[in-house]
What we know:
Layout: E1 6-9, H1 18-26, E2 30-33, H2 37-41, E3 46-50, H3 54-63, H4 66-75, E4 80-84, H5 85-88, E5 91-94, E6 100-101, E7 106-112, E8 123-128, E9 130-131, E10 145-150, E11 152-154, E12 164-170, E13 172-180, E14 183-186, H6 194-205, E15 226-235, E16 241-247, E17 250-255, H7 257-267, E18 271-276, H8 288-300, E19 305-308, E20 325-328, H9 330-342, H10 350-358, E21 363-367, E22 369-374, E23 385-386, E24 397-404, E25 409-414, H11 415-425, E26 429-432, H12 446-455, E27 460-463, H13 469-478, E28 483-486, H14 488-491, H15 497-506
Parallel strand pairs: 1-2, 1-3, 3-4, 4-14, 5-7, 15-18, 15-28, 18-19, 19-20, 20-21, 21-26, 26-27, 27-28
Antiparallel strand pairs: 5-6, 7-11, 8-10, 9-12, 12-13, 13-14, 15-16, 16-17, 22-24, 23-24, 24-25
Bound molecules: ligand 1PR.
The site of ligand 1PR has 34 residues, from strand 15, strand 16, strand 20 and helix 9.
Amino acid sequence: SGDASTVTLLDYGAGNVRSVRNAIRHLGxxxxxxxxxxxxxxxxxxxxxxxxxxxxxxxxxxxxxMADALREYIRRDRPFLxxxxxxxxxxxxxxxxxxxSGLGVVPGVVRRFDSSKGLIVPHIGWNALxxxxxxxxxxxxxxxxxxxxxxxxxLPSDENxxxxxxxxxxxxxxxxxxxxxxxxxxxxxxxxxxxxxxxILKNFLSPNSSGSKVPSRRKASNLAKRVIACLxxxxxxxxxxxxxxxxxxxxxxxxxxxxxxxxxxxxGADEVSFLNITxxxxxxxxxxxxxxxxxxxxxxxxxxxTVGGGIRDFTDANGRSGADKISIGSDAVxxxxxxxxTGVKTGKSSLEQxxxxxxxxxxxxxxxxxRVYVKNPEEVQFKTVKMSNKGPLGEEYAWYxxxxxxxxxxxxxxxxELAKAVEELGAGEILLNCIDCDGQGCGFxxxxxxxxxxxxxxxxxASSGAGAVEHFSEVFEKTNASAALAAGIFHRKEVPISAVxxxxxxxxxxxxV
Length: 513
Ligand code: 1PR
């Protein structure tokens, strides 16, 4: 059928496979899209990046006749690579909104991670592979960190043990990849796993080529803490988006967003976030410059990308435009306030809608609180914390008041209350800023980060105030933060990302290096 440099991609239209496309093209391969079940059977090499919920994916595949074509393609032992849900769908069934039957190629079930045991769910981030079977696909990847984002996982059992090519540990052992003959599938995202992921993808695309070995590095063991580079972006007078960085939300300009994002990727950032800080004035997903920035960034940056600023409506037409996660600030505050007042989840907020369509791992809520000192916790109805450093009038306590519109308006809700409410509304992660610390370089607000990261079971990203490598180890040692984000020190090139990573390794904190 096709030539060796073309790969067939099964995109059943449930969402974002742009990154997979970009990674395949980056490796020098062309893409042919599946339009009918026959295209599956005619493929030389098939990549199946599953997205969305298990049940809706099975529905689409069954109704279109593609489920049968897939089973037949696999029965013929034709080269196949499933990614994420593309692995899970191969199993007998999933408990996601189910049980729901899968393709039934691999015996076993797919189950949710159990957050009742204190595990942070979704499992988001860089986790190490323990290879259990020698395969071409994972050559050299033993002990490397690869990027996962999922709440459900396939369980290893006696029935499927011959299929398993690697496992990963997250609270329990789960299947991170399977391999049998030409059939391969991975739970992680090779297209988002940096150089390691690209090598794995290349091993599938050109199995006979040499020189696609994964770069060697030290052994990893568990989920790594993430270091995230943030670009605060705004439009200048001529309408171009520029990176900007300020001091307590007072901004000045710094450089071009796509160039900076690519540089951060090369420097080892585990994720890159774009926040359109003027977004509350317009709607950036309908805003072409921001879409263009994302489109270009996703061609060069093979780690997760987050976009935020001004998200208040949900428009399917724009999709995620190359973003893996969408960050919501102001609109989430209003949604949480309404929810706490009425006790009713309307399902209509941007947060709830995006969470429902793309899954909660795609929704980050950005909290922008400001410290309010109090003498006595009884003075306020919000959760206070005993401060490590007293306030200007000797106050021993503070609560953290949420703001909207880039810190312009304060709202009657605390960071603690907001975090708990948005978790219930379907947020998959919290980006926890602190206006008092933003751009100060004096370290993260440990009191705040500890309070919030102890209160929720979704990952918390500590943000605002990083000024030295020690601030990163401090926040990971003293709180339950899953990631730490910084803007200013990376923009001003005061501290390279690699120095942060090296320091964390020396401090005994597991990171991707
Ligand atoms: O409310 O949904 O439109 O979202 C607006 C988004 O833009 C929010 O995520 C909000 O945090 C952000 N934002 C709004 N105004 C500003 C501003 O600076 N004037 N940026 C702003 C806030 C916070 C972080 C910053 C960290 C780390 N920036 O993005 O990068 O504080 O900085 P540091 O490492 O230099 O200390 P919506």
